[in-house]
Amino acid sequence: MKHAIQITIKGLVQGVGFRPFIFNLASSLNLSGYVLNTTTGVFIEVEGDRVNINKFTEHVRTQPPPQSEIFEIQSKDINPAGYADFEIRESERPEERFVPISPELATCTECLSELFNPEDRRYRYPFINCTNCGPRFTIVKDIPYDRKFTTMSVFQMCEKCNAEYHYPADRRFHAQPNACHVCGPKLFLFDNKMKEFPATDVISETCRLLKEGQIIALKGLGGYHLACDALNKDAVSKLRARKFREYKPFAIMVKDINTARDICFIDEKEEQLLSGVKRPIVLLKKRPDAPVSEEVAPNQKYFGIMLPYTSLHHLLLAESGLILVMTSANTSSEPIVFKEKDAFDRLCNITDYYVIHNREIHIRTDDSVCRVELGKDVVLRRSRGYAPHPLLMKHPFAEQILACGAELKNTFCLARGRYAFLSHHIGDLENLETLSSFENGIEHFKRIFNIEPSLIACDLHPEYLSAKYAHSLINIRKAGVQHHHAHIVSCMADNGLEGDIIGVSFDGTGYGLDGKIWGGEFLVCNYNGFQRAAHFEYFQLNGGEKAIKEPWRIAASFLYKIYGDDMMNLDIDFVRSLDINKWQILQHMIAREINSPLTSSAGRVFDAVSALLGIRKEIYYEGQAAIELEMKADSSDNGRYEFDCKEHDGKTAIVLDPLIRGVVTDIVKGVAVNAISARFHNTIADIVSAMCLKIKKHAGINRVALSGGVFQNSLLMEKTSILLDENGFKVYTHHRVPTNDGGISLGQAVIANEIAKAGKV
Ligand code: ZN
Ligand code: ZN
Ligand code: FE
């Protein structure tokens, strides 16, 4: 007797080869019926032998296509309709539409073997792809995920491609970006005067130019890269000079894992991350004998390395034999360039040549950045390969919410049902170009995920462009969320936690409830609210923004607070090399408290110590002083410094004067900078542990969440986690969303949801 069932699947099931998988599975089990993409996922009807139907559902549950992710699966028995065979039906497209879209997928092994097979019709075709790999999110203009709603719609498939596309058992069945030499996108080479460069073979010509030391602006999946030979010191220096980027590390791309091993130490976990389908940049420890130019990542212990993720990358790397610098193409703080016009306008003074193609990028996405920390993958910049994959929450959001994120490393988050759609990395909201990328991104997400928010969450900082954007919207309820509360709740949501927690938010900045700049915070908190239990004692940020760019100011200000005029007698280089004129102006500022906002920022304490040790007195990119301080640390040193506590208004202020004195004493004694840096890190870990024990005593909470940009410092993160663990705490850190401000929007969405549920907005 024939049986029949209906199956509804929700999750990441479109654009990942799900329907061909279902078709092949049903056919192999002699089942008839149909499958179709719906606006909420995939809908299946199968009928046939009961045993085979059970096998079918079991297989779907346990062995779905590798790139898919099933969030929900429901099935029910129905009456057989008597289908003759199994077919794939046209997608529905009614109004209520809502389905996750796959992120970009690195070129799969089958496509790769075709790419390098001279017999294959796609031999050396730089846009090869199939249902298991290729562009997705960056080419989607609308949903459902069908070719006509992507930027591939302008390419008419040739007969052969068309046949593959329509043959259900083919790997390219409904592969929306399917293409070949005959019918698909093509490469073009231009010089920096916008003149097409005559090349019979763009790939080999580009390889030649790279070997010559030329800089190439290379159009990729989510935007342009600037590429050059990483072993050629002159080429790398030229790129730095033209980009006005003196120190910030460049990412590099290598052709395979073995080449990566020649320049970095790689463990099994790191290898998986590096060679996985998401293909992020992975931060890996440099080998001392690495052949790559020091210019690529000066003063760093790590290289940011990625493996090729498009066929174009594979061809360039395999045929040139080079290791390439691959850095996002942009000018200073602007977002990555992704349109030809901008590329020609903005990059012409940086690049020597352009390699472009005619497949339009609909939305820009940067490369993601990850590392392995204490055995787990940690994402530091969540973008290509990750976005727009949603985070699945334990409970549904009560309404549709837009959270606007912070200012630097901005992401936004749109929430609906149990899904939190965290955006790709938008960048620093400091200029019009980034702001419009932010606004367009929000509109795009609203459209493709069919979200019309009724509530908007933003940071309390009145000057953040993301907050100004939120306040500019009319007829929508608004919820302001404290920056560090958002950090901690983001970490909680990342780990699927609810209830009370001790939150340690160490950060550069964050607008406080008292109008001061918070950043060294211990909160007792949950989704509904927080209490500030302890924080670093306030200190002056003399010169405001200028103090962030010139950490010597903070160091000098600390010394003056502790030693008064006697500081000039300290036998340390820092004092000896003080510019007396500048110091007198600063002293004036300190005395009169001119342009000297108060802060409890942990990030600025790292900056001050870095300056005091002569590591970095002025910075060229965000976080540089703290990063270089971390890089100097000799992690085997177990020394530590003292610190004090002061009680006020039921809060604890952590006094750092003894720490600074300890550092100065060590410098005078001639202790190595590497040891002092380690001792400083040990002390900060001690402070966290001591404060958490203190809070635990009266709040009775045993769980600690660590968040904030300072915890990108993996030495601090590891030392702190281990120490807390030894003291009996359960420690939670970020994994799926960044610990820096890129994770803020998720926390905002969760908190805003609670504010609304409590009827406070
Ligand atoms: Zn493929
Ligand atoms: Zn074709
Ligand atoms: Fe922050």
Descriptive notes:
- The protein has 761 residues and is of the alpha/beta class.
- The protein has 5 domains: 3-88, Alpha-Beta Plaits, CATH 3.30.70.100; 109-166, no CATH class; 187-369, DHBP synthase (Alpha-Beta Complex), CATH 3.90.870.10; 390-494 and 738-761, Nucleotidyltransferase, domain 5, CATH 3.30.420.360; 535-732, ATPase, nucleotide binding domain (Nucleotidyltransferase, domain 5, 2-Layer Sandwich).
- It is 33% helix and 20% strand.
- The chain has 23 helices and 30 strands.
- Strands 6-13-7-8-12-9-11-10-14-15 form a 10-stranded mixed β-sheet, sandwiched between helices. Strands 27-28-24-23-22-29-30 form a 7-stranded mixed β-sheet, with helices on both faces.
- Helix 22 (714-726) links the parallel strand 29 and strand 30.
- Helix 15 (552-563) packs across helix 18 (602-612), helix 20 runs antiparallel to helix 21 and helix 21 packs across helix 22.
- The longest helix has 27 residues, at 673-699.
- It is globular.
- The model has no long low-confidence stretch (mean pLDDT 95).
- Fe (iii) ion (FE) is lined by residues 406, 483, 487, 507, 510, 708-709, 741.
